[in-house]
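Q: Convert this sequence to structure tokens.
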Amino acid sequence: MYVGHVFLCDASSVMDCMRRKSFTCTGDNVKVVSEMEVGSLIFLLNVDSNSLVGPFTVTGSSGVGVEPGGWREVINPHGTNAGINVEWEDLHELKDAQEMFPFLKDINVCKLSDIQIQGLMIALKEAPSFKMK
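A:
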């Protein structure tokens, strides 16, 4: 059983998220967990292009821990969380992700169910490799 989360970005921040390995779950009244477990899966949803990239794996937190204000009941839509370290090996990009997975259209909880994680993993496995630009 996996623990997984969807993190949001836009066209202007996706490469910065990748370069800095710092993601956040954004939006009004988004409920998030206060701590990420090592081994959790993260999927990055670009809300501008409607593409999902992943999976990323949480390896731990930085020495400073979770950035203050990065995780709270109402998230700053322009903030990032630099306290989560991730790694990846074989990223894939799923186009039209919100049409394939309607739950991605209204993200109000970043944490995913087991069935949602399984569906995303299967779809990403079949999707083309993600090319960093």
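Strands lie at 4-9, 41-46, 51-61, 84-87, 92-94, 111-112.
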